[in-house]
Design brief:
The protein is an alpha/beta fold and 355 residues long. It has three domains: 77 residues, FAD/NAD(P)-binding domain; 116 residues, FAD/NAD(P)-binding domain, CATH 3.50.50.60; 132 residues, Enolase-like, domain 1, CATH 3.30.390. It has twelve helices and 16 strands. A five-stranded antiparallel β-sheet has the order 12-13-16-15-14.
């Protein structure tokens, strides 16, 4: 490091990731989610490439800041492809209402600098569009920062996408070398990078106890800071059915349009969804609504500790808080899952009382 050699028994690679700008877009000059914050003046128009969390957050924010034209481009068939399809549809609906022009199923194949603007070429399977904008924001995934740091010489293997391969203890293929954060190509969230860093640090500091330090993969919450917030944890419905079968996955739903606090705050546009098995164990949850990023932790805590959703239904929640909607959602278990049991009448009565 700076000409000095550093010796140690164990090392942790935490070099993170960076935005890799495709050659076809470099000529026009592209902003990243970081460099856009350094702009001295507000552009009149922008083309955002990528409609994951960063893309949709910036699309809404920039349009609300007064940009005349905001284009949001996504190569898959929907926005936020990691979320439930109905959540993707809700986000698209809101963005369209706010004046964002959304293109799904399109890729940005080229960009060039014109006199005073940048031109972006968008292509789908059967259509080609050209848009002229002041700025281009690249909001796609990150590439691992592994170049020229000697990983090959150290025996550290990379996967096909160029990220460092690690086991559940954050160990690489090289003895005594660990890795953590975005360089591993797992969930690219700050809080997950922190989690993997803790696992790597514990393993490096206490090697005899490495088998007890395992990375969490099942219960990983995240939030897209849209308006309304979109928060999720665990599996989506398609994943759950693929793993457990249609007959073993039950979907509980609660619309915030029926919830007092959301109505009073004029934030009733949203929904809570939970996926459970027959015994009430939570497989996954999604919230679209005010303070979703805070409320999702109740589901995460329940999943982490294998607390059944019936326990959440029986737990007293402060009224009127957004968290109280979790209790209302959880009570749907008695209708949805026990609907064919001999206790149907009692279950329906209980669910009604919990509204």
């Amino acid at each position: 490091v700076d000409g000095a050699k550093i010796y140690g028994n164990r090392f942790i690679v935490a070099t993170g990731g960076y935005q890799n700008i495709p050659a076809a877009l470099k000529e026009a000059g592209v902003l990243t989610h970081e460099s856009i914050l350094e702009l001295a003046t507000k552009p009149e128009s922008i083309c955002i490439i990528g409609a994951g969390p960063v893309g949709v957050e910036y699309a809404q924010t920039l349009k609300r800041l007064g940009l005349k034209k905001v284009y949001l481009i996504e190569y898959t068939d929907r926005l936020l492809p990691r979320e439930e399809p109905e959540i993707s549809a809700l986000v698209k609906e809101i963005l369209l209402e706010e004046g964002v022009e959304v293109f799904t199923g399109f890729s940005a194949t080229a960009a060039m600098q014109k006199e005073d603007t940048k031109q972006v070429v968008l292509e789908s399977k059967n259509k080609k569009i050209e848009v002229d904008v002041d700025q281009i924001l690249l909001a796609t995934g990150k590439t691992a920062a592994t170049k020229d740091i000697g990983l090959e010489a150290a025996g550290v293997k990379l996967n096909a996408r160029g990220f460092i391969e690690v086991d559940r203890h954050q160990r690489t293929s090289a003895p005594n070398i660990f890795a953590a954060g975005d360089v591993c190509g797992l969930y690219q969230f700050t809080h997950y990078a922190d989690h993997t860093a803790q696992i790597a640090a514990l393993g490096a500091a206490f090697p005899l106890f490495i088998p007890f330090f395992n990375r969490e993969e099942r219960v990983v919450p995240w939030c897209t800071f849209f308006d309304p917030e979109i928060a999720s944890v665990g599996m989506r419905k398609e994943e759950a059915i693929a793993r457990y079968g249609q007959s073993n996955v039950f979907e509980l739903r609660y619309s915030l349009e029926d919830f007092d606090r959301a109505i009073v705050d004029n934030q009733a546009r949203g929904i809570m969804i939970a996926l459970v098995d027959k015994k009430g164990q939570i497989l996954g949850a999604t919230i679209a609504g005010a303070r979703a990023g805070e409320v999702i932790h109740e589901f995460a805590l329940a999943m982490q500790n294998k607390i059944a959703i019936t326990t959440l239904a029986r737990t007293i929640h402060v009224y009127p808080t957004m968290s109280a909607a979790v209790r209302n959602l959880s009570a749907q278990y008695y209708k949805v899952v026990t609907g064919n049991s001999v206790s149907l009448k009692l279950a329906k009565m209980l669910a009604t009382l919990m509204k």
